[in-house]
């Protein structure tokens, strides 16, 4: 899929619209989800323009690994790592992806059922 940089996460990355930032480094940012599905719900978003996980390539390996490391770090910072958290990447319309800039959802702070939706 061709990356379209008018999506809302591209605009947050360009600081055109605000977000409740939890982390920023040279590869990614993490900020709270606008429509939280758990007491803690944040997104880890790479700075690289990747539309979907389905579009990731070998060149994205380090970035993708970094997103998961940061997911765990932010959970430790928020005090929810010990009790448990869930990471989710929706890739494509049928999986429920609505913003076409790859992102990792991180949910915590309540019991999470399995399988998800
Ligand atoms: P997905 O459906 O997997 O593409 O998830 C997109 C998530 O992005 C959804 O949980 C709501 C969140 N979201 C959408 N627009 C905004 C926004 O402007 N700010 C923030 N912080 N989150 C947003």
Explained architecture:
With 117 residues, the protein is of the alpha+beta class. It is 21% helix and 21% strand. The radius of gyration is 14 Å and the shape is globular. Bound molecules: 2'-deoxyguanosine-5'-monophosphate. 2'-deoxyguanosine-5'-monophosphate is lined by residues 8, 19, 31-35, 90, 96-99.
Sequence-ordered SSE layout with sheet pairings:
Layout: H1 8-13, E1 21-24, E2 28-32, E3 40-46, H2 61-78, E4 85-88, E5 104-108
Antiparallel strand pairs: 1-2, 2-3, 3-5, 4-5
The site of 2'-deoxyguanosine-5'-monophosphate has 12 residues, from strand 2.
| Strand arrangement, major sheet | 1-2-3-5-4
Q: The biggest beta sheet, please? A: 5 strands, antiparallel
Number of strands: 5
Distance between the termini: 25 Å
Structural class per helix/strand content? alpha+beta
Secondary-structure element series: HEEEHEE
- Round the mean pLDDT to the nearest integer and report it: 98
User: What overall form do the CA principal axes indicate?
Assistant: globular
């Amino acid at each position: 899929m061709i990356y379209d940089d008018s999506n809302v996460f591209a605009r947050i990355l360009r600081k055109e619209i605000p977000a409740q930032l939890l982390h920023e480094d040279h590869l990614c940012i993490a900020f709270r989800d606008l429509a939280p599905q758990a007491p803690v719900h944040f997104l880890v978003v790479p700075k690289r323009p990747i539309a979907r996980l389905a579009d990731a390539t070998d060149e994205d390996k380090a970035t993708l690994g970094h997103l998961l490391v940061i997911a765990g770090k932010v959970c430790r910072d928020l005090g929810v790592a010990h009790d448990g958290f869930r990471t989710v990447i929706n890739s494509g319309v049928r999986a429920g992806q609505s913003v076409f800039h790859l992102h990792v959802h991180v949910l915590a702070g309540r019991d999470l059922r399995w399988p998800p939706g």
